[in-house]
Structures are given as structure tokens and as C-alpha cells.
């Protein structure tokens, strides 16, 4: 029995309507669309002494570049551990890594604004992970997700589609920030990078519409090659980068340039000695104030719980995994992979690990089993040998996939009962709030809070369960904690 047949049998590939070749291509596609985190996560988490006001992980006796180098290795290991668990335990095609946004909350809010030692912040993430493992093991997380109102479940996919699209358009330089209108069209004609991205986007859409196998991966590859050629002729600067929104800050990523044994954008050699980070969370338990620590754990927990739930349901909808009630069968298994990843990541020295919405790119390429996740994990591990390989594809090329998938995911909107106002309002709130707040959790929250209110207004009291009322109240409490300054007042 050959390797291909062994893999097909182990992951039950053929019974999922897929092939080993399709799963491998899907894994490569997912990896390329999420590999930016290898650079972004260390840039956000490491305290940069050259930029006043930045906060995060700083280790006495080690330079900023050295800390970044450690965090690159930790990011790759945490992503690999979580995604391997997803592959072998859950057999689902989802990639995992330290979450963008959650890392910004870790560095800029908890460590920065609140002045909490980074070791204590890691301890909070570790506790969050243990809670997730416990709640997943007893079925509590699955039970909570099942009581999501149906219009919210049906709207998550479309909301994530819009979220992916705005992330992708930003990464390509097509949409930029504006002080007057928040967002606006970039100066496309005068920006060579944006021109390359637009050409690549339409080339990918054409390939996709023509039903060319591996169209998204081909589009990324063509755009990367075009960018590289223009870089050689001096049309695109070797260090041309575009920003990725990350909470209250942004991080520039390098375009495709020379490949060497340094971390792109830092000039720092990769170091595999992560002992100053690994296990540092243990010291974070000393001298903590119980209530303040609980609030931090609560915030990490809440955001990650509903981000992951939304991603699994939304991407599962694209893959056709959901049942008639809008539930993902055996969701406890991918949830456990997420919990294990978060716990292992905190122990290694990084912020919360979560399931990536970029997994939709691989799913759209046909990935249906854990073999897709295995390919993603192996590519993260392979990147340990030569870190720049993980970032050789420029952001403007990889984010083409997000726009394409974002457009495709809009078709999920037909699953919503738009002729029922008690479905229209919570579904519409879920879809709109996700991209505008840059948060899957906030989108779900707005839908869940509005659902019982409109049901009561319509006189349909019996349609709202006690669990749905409890979720709505829980989200209200979360918003009070997160936006009222309570965290700052208590820490």
C-alpha cells in the first residue's frame, strides 16, 4: 500500500468526496493565506524599544530582534501542535495558529494599557485553555453553540465572507483607511503593488469561474511571480509592504525579496532557544489579584470562544458540513483541538491559538478532511528550517484568496429566512457588525442579543429558549466589561 492510499484510508478521504491531491492543494492554499502570522505575531507580541508606547513581551538581556526570533519559533510550534491535533483527532480541514486581534489585546491592552506582566498574561491564556479543555470534554461548549439562534448560525458564513473580503482588500492596498470616511479606495493607479494585486485578483476570479482545479493556488502563485519579476526590474520595491489591521496598531509585512536565514523585516537570525519563553507562564501566577486576573481570563475566554465557534460554523457551511439545524456534527473535536492549541501555545509563550477563517480558502479548493490540516501543520514545521519560506509569498498575493472566498461565501445569505423580520434583524446585525468591528465574536453577540428582543416584540415568546436568554445576558455583561473601562479600573 502506497503513501497516497494510506493517507486516503486513514483520513477517509474518498468517502468525503475528495482526493489526496485535492487535500494537499487545499492544505498549501490554507497555509499560504495564513502564513503571514509567522511575521505578524512576533511583531505584535514583542516589545519594541525603538517605538515609544509599544508594549508586549520583553526579556532582560535579550534584544528586540532576539525576542522576535524566539516568538517566530513559538508561533510555528503552537500552530503545528494545534493543527496536528485538528488533523488526527478532529479530521477536519481547519488551520490553527495564534489569533490576530487576540495577540493585540494581549500586548496592547493587557500588558500595555493595564500594566499586567506578560508572564501573568500568559498565565491567563493558559487558564483559558484549561477551561476550554474541561468544558469541551464535558460537552458544554458544544451545547452552548447548539443554542445559537438559527438566523445567527445561518448568517455567520456571510458575515465571515465580508470580514475576509475587507481583510483581503486591505492587504492588497485596494481599501485603505481614511480619517473622514474610515475606509476608502486606495490610489491604485499610482501604487504598483495594488496594480499587481488587482491583476492577480481578476486572474484568479477568471480561473475560478472557468472551474480550473487549484485556481486559488494558481492565482496566488501567478501574482507572486509577477510581483517578483517587477521587483527585479525595480518597479516594486523589495521591501514593499502593506499593513494588516491588528487591534489598535498595524504591522508592515515585506513583499517577496531575497530569501536568507533571517526573520523578514528584522534582520535577526533565527534562534531555536525558546527557554526564556517556554514555561514563563508559571511565574505569572505569583502575586496576582484574583478578581482582576479573572476579568482578564474572562475576556480572553469570551472572544476566543465565539471567534472559534463562528469560524467553525461559517467555514463548515462553505464545506457543506452543517446539518439541517445549522450545527456542525462532532464540533467537540475541532473545539478540543483549539483548546489544546491554546494551552500548548501559552506554555510555549504565545497568546491565544484559534481556528483561522483563512481555512475557508482551502475548503473552497476542495479540502474536506484532516489531511488538509496535516499539510498545513507540516508546512509550519518545515518553516522552522527556513523561516523566510513561510513568508516568501507577499501579503498582496496571499490575500487574493480571502477576497475570492469572501465573494463566494456571500451565497450563504440565501439560507436566511429574510421574509421573517425576527430572522432578518438578528441575521442582518450578525452580518454587518462582523466586518465593521473586525470581530467575529462581536457579530455573533449582536445577533444573539437582538434575537430575543425582536421575538418578544413580535409576540413570539415561546421561540426563545432559556439558554438563548442566558447567552444574550452573558454578552451584555461581556460588553460592559470590555467597553466600560472596568478592566482598567480593577487592574
From TrEMBL:
Example GO molecular function: purine nucleobase transmembrane transporter activity
Pfam families per the UniProt record, alphabetical: Xan_ur_permease
Record-annotated membrane-spanning stretches: 69-90, 97-115, 121-140, 152-176, 188-209, 216-236, 242-263, 275-303, 335-357, 369-390, 396-418, 430-454, 466-485
Membrane topology: Multi-pass membrane protein
Location(s) in or outside the cell: Cell membrane
Keywords: Cell membrane, Membrane, Transmembrane, Transmembrane helix, Transport
GO cellular component: plasma membrane
InterPro entries the UniProt entry points to: Azg-like (IPR045018), Azg-like_bact_archaea (IPR026033), NCS2 (IPR006043)
UniProt family annotation: Belongs to the nucleobase:cation symporter-2 (NCS2) (TC 2.A.40) family. Azg-like subfamily.
Name the UniProt record assigns to this protein: Transporter
